[in-house]
Amino acid sequence: MLGDDLEIGDLVTHVLYGRGWIGIIVDFKQGTLGTENKRDRKALVQLQPGTEHANFFKRSITCERVNDSLGYVSVNWLFVVKEKNANTRPSRNKTPQSGRKSKKIS
Predict the structure, then answer these.
(1) Exposed/middle/buried for 25, CB within 10 Å: 0-12, 13-18, 19+?
(2) Fewest 10 Å CB contacts: which of 17, 32, 88, 103?
(3) What is the pLDDT of residue 35?
């Protein structure tokens, strides 16, 4: 799922940091009032303790950081994590099914 399909409660990963960056979306905010630009939409993400980037926001600018593990990230960097056979993976790795049943043409 790309940034437009994200919802509060989604388990997400960052496109640049991969599986070591795992968080849960807590809230959203729109950067500039009156714009519908996706780059201005940010998700408030709580990073999971014990993950490689658990203190990711420690180095972020103050306006993006709530604390070391909670802060805002532009939604265009986030992907929902899917679980398959007890292995987590970003959802962008799977091509969606067309939903059509294939028929043999004689």
Answers:
(1) buried
(2) 103
(3) 52
